[in-house]
């Protein structure tokens, strides 16, 4: 029987939370009693994802009155104001507690490109979203957790990648950003420990999301990749929910900070 109520009464923000890994973590948090505010771009083409997430969150709450409540906030993580607004919405969403307990910096982009022809625009978009966006939301969350609530404290989770540890010929603009997220979590763990704020990185392996669905649609590529993974399959976004709950839960990971948790089915240790 799955554990329940591990995040009861907590409030979290998740950037890029309506699809893929962010959505799976959001649903996992809601089931554990956490109130969640997801950030999204607010684009018309993405409305279907938001609508279905709202419907799923409502179904969870109807089934379990102890589940968390969902709210959402549109905005581009590349803009400083987006992070501040997201944090303010979460504090309001927390009700009388007036707290932010968990921040998951998940929003990111990944477009494969040849190094020799890679455009400055793609490089800037990738760095601004994956690194600048992670920095802005981490800083805004940390300011709330450290300076504007009593007692201070919280958990910040940066979504890095196995790509932070290995090279990728078509990812020369992407892998450095994920190494940057890992480094950001290491440094903020040092900077924020005195406030009781824990900062850790999650490093997914090959997870089936909208970012790689076209690549994994190639049977030869998918079969090759699955053959390299000791557990014999590519990951599902839901595979990240449990690790994200673990890092968010003080009772489970209260002495874990500055860490990098690989969630890759064993791929990294089999790269030979």
From TrEMBL:
<dbReference type="Pfam" id="PF13561">
    <property type="entry name" value="adh_short_C2"/>
</dbReference>
<keyword id="KW-0521">NADP</keyword>
<comment type="similarity">
    <text>Belongs to the short-chain dehydrogenases/reductases (SDR) family.</text>
</comment>
<keyword id="KW-0684">Rhamnose metabolism</keyword>
<keyword id="KW-0560">Oxidoreductase</keyword>
<dbReference type="InterPro" id="IPR036291">
    <property type="entry name" value="NAD(P)-bd_dom_sf"/>
</dbReference>
<dbReference type="GO" id="GO:0016616">
    <property type="term" value="F:oxidoreductase activity, acting on the CH-OH group of donors, NAD or NADP as acceptor"/>
</dbReference>
<dbReference type="GO" id="GO:0019301">
    <property type="term" value="P:rhamnose catabolic process"/>
</dbReference>
<dbReference type="GO" id="GO:0006633">
    <property type="term" value="P:fatty acid biosynthetic process"/>
</dbReference>
<dbReference type="GO" id="GO:0048038">
    <property type="term" value="F:quinone binding"/>
</dbReference>
<protein>
    <recommendedName>
        <fullName>Short-chain dehydrogenase</fullName>
    </recommendedName>
</protein>
<dbReference type="InterPro" id="IPR002347">
    <property type="entry name" value="SDR_fam"/>
</dbReference>
């Amino acid at each position: 029987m799955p554990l329940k109520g591990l995040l009861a009464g907590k409030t979290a923000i998740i950037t890029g939370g309506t699809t893929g890994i962010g959505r799976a973590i959001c649903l996992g948090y809601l089931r554990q009693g956490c109130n969640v505010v997801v950030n999204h771009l607010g684009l018309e083409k993405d409305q279907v994802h938001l609508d279905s997430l709202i419907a799923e969150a409502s179904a969870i709450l109807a089934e379990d009155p102890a589940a968390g409540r969902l709210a959402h906030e549109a905005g581009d993580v590349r803009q400083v104001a987006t992070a501040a607004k997201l944090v303010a919405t979460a504090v309001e969403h927390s009700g009388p507690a007036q707290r932010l307990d968990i921040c998951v910096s998940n929003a990111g982009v990944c477009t494969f490109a040849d190094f020799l022809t890679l455009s400055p625009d793609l490089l800037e978009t990738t760095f601004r979203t994956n690194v600048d966006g992670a920095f802005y939301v981490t800083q805004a969350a940390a300011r709330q957790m450290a300076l504007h609530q009593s007692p201070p404290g919280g958990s910040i989770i940066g979504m890095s990648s196995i790509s932070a540890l290995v090279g990728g010929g078509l990812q020369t603009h992407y892998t450095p950003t994920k190494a940057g997220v890992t480094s950001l979590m290491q440094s903020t763990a040092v900077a924020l420990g005195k406030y009781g704020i824990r900062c850790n990185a999650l490093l997914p392996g090959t997870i089936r999301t909208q970012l790689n669905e076209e690549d994994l649609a190639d049977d030869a590529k998918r079969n090759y990749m699955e053959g390299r993974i000791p557990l014999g399959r590519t990951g599902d976004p839901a595979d990240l929910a449990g690790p994200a709950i673990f890092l968010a839960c003080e009772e489970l990971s209260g002495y874990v900070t500055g860490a990098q948790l690989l969630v890759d089915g064993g791929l990294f240790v089999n790269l030979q």
